[in-house]
Amino acid sequence: LVALPDVEATGHPLARLPNSVSAIVHGAIGGEVAVALDLDHGIACSTGSACTSGSDEPSHVLTAMGYGPDAARGALRMTLGRTTTEGEIDEAVAALRPAIERARSAGAAAVGGRA
Fold it and tell me: Which SS3 state, helix, strand or coil, does residue 106 take?
């Protein structure tokens, strides 16, 4: 995920849960990335922290960590379960780039449409 352009992992670089990733997708709304992953690939993920899922507000956890509201809105959180296979991980990795590009394009079109 963080190998993609303008995507950065949040949280501690080493003290992390082995089955979870939280990242900021700069230039995109995390919810739009999540929708693209779901609609185009059937991949479920979330934005922000689990305690604020479903909220349109930027994550208070990410803003407390120093991320501005626009960056925090780009949050994407993915987890693995006991039954997640390597093939499913490979599918998710392959789906991330087009989902992020779709979300960034949608955001640029929305901004361009208001001008």
Answer: helix
